[in-house]
Amino acid sequence: MQYNPSIPVYIQIKDDIIKKIREGMWKENEKIPSEVKFMEEYGAGRGTVREAIRLIIDEGYLYIKKGIGTFVAQKEVGISIEPFVSLTYFIKMRGLDIHTKVLEVEERIMDEDTSKKTGIEAGTTCLFVKRMRMMKNQPIGLETFHFAYKAEVLYKDFDFTHAISHYLFHDCQLTVTKMNMEMELVKASGEGMKRLGLDQKSKMLVSNRIVYINANQDVLYHLTFVCGEELSQIGLDKFV
């Protein structure tokens, strides 16, 4: 396999294995070759192959049987919720690294104004989380969450430097029934401008998202995400 030097090798291996799965090289529930076989086939190290396989599992094409091996889950994967709600996923699929700096984690009582914005009932307890998303020690986004549904259970001992959407939708197996999202490009101001290092001539993208779960369409969380208009460091001239 001839590699493109501008794309991480594990991303190219991931794409090639997914292509083979979709073309039917292995049947559903059939065991795929071992890491060693893939290392020989692709001329890559174990860590590179392992990362490629991990991403393919995340995308739903493979699953692991502990102590036995890795198997094909399905040849065609439906749309996952994660690309729509996870900045980590968005950046990971470009072969880049992102890390998180947690600024605040605390329980709060919803007031009337915040309730109207978030959809979480006024007077109830929510879990408030604020964090910075960083790449190469540079801030690229400010996230503010209000979590409502079983916060005291779902997030007990959770490390908020980790990917939240992966935890909720993969580990906790929650099912989204509805998602409302609004995006607006505005003049940089306030905490977003300050924390992202923008000036008053800059613009920033502000996204508000409410995620609902279960048959009653209870609010799982509200997220406000703020980033600069220009995101050349993740391979985009602009986010929109």
Structural class by sheet pairing and helices: alpha+beta
Percent of sequence in beta strands: 25-35%
**Computed CA radius of gyration, to the nearest angstrom:** 20 Å
- How many structural domains in the coordinates? 2
Write down the secondary-structure element order.
Answer: HHHEEHHEHEEHHEHEE
Largest sheet: 6 strands, antiparallel
- What helical percentage do the residues reach? 25-40%
Brief account:
With 240 residues, the chain is α+β, with helices and mostly antiparallel strands.
Keywords, please?
single chain, six-stranded antiparallel sheet, 240 residues, alpha+beta, Arc Repressor Mutant, subunit A, 2 domains, globular, Chorismate lyase, two-stranded antiparallel ribbon, disordered C terminus
What would your notes on this structure say?
This protein is an alpha+beta fold and 240 residues long. It has two domains: 9-72, Arc Repressor Mutant, subunit A, CATH 1.10.10; 82-234, Chorismate lyase. Helix content is 30%, strand content 31%. The chain is built from nine helices and eight strands. The strands form two sheets. A six-stranded antiparallel beta sheet has the order 3-4-5-8-7-6, with helices on one face. A hairpin with a 3-residue loop joins strand 1 and strand 2. Helix 1 crosses helix 3 (46-58) and helix 2 (35-42) crosses helix 3. It is globular and about 60 Å long. Mean pLDDT is 85; it is low at 232-240.
